[in-house]
Fold this protein.
Amino acid sequence: MLETKLRNDPARSGWYTPNEVQYLTSDGLNWRVISRHHIWRPPVDVFETDEALVVRVEVAGVRESDFEIALEGNILSIHGVRQDLSERRAYHQMEIRFGEFGVEIELPVSIESQQVQAVYRDGFLRVTLPKVQSRQIHIKE
């Protein structure tokens, strides 16, 4: 594991990390930047409704069979591969990432793991994680 400090550059707005850096982790006191050169992280939205936590990942051009989705404890892991075209070409601009990708999200609420659903449509993977509903306990007289 390579650890890197965040940098501040007046030419850029805010803090930044080098392009090969994929995500930050925290042990409560310090932030660590974890670098994985061969894995890229697609854009992810996480939002909460009254009934569920929803994770939406923008990753067009991937076959459903190329996704691996796992829920272990309170960590949702989404991994996969976006295959590159094998034709030879000379790029003038290249911004679309190919190869192995991964996302790990720490879930802030308890989940009904047996009812998790995933749907891949129009370039978005949507994982719906139903929240454990609290139940009212009545006192017997």
Notes: The two ends are 59 Å apart (CA to CA).
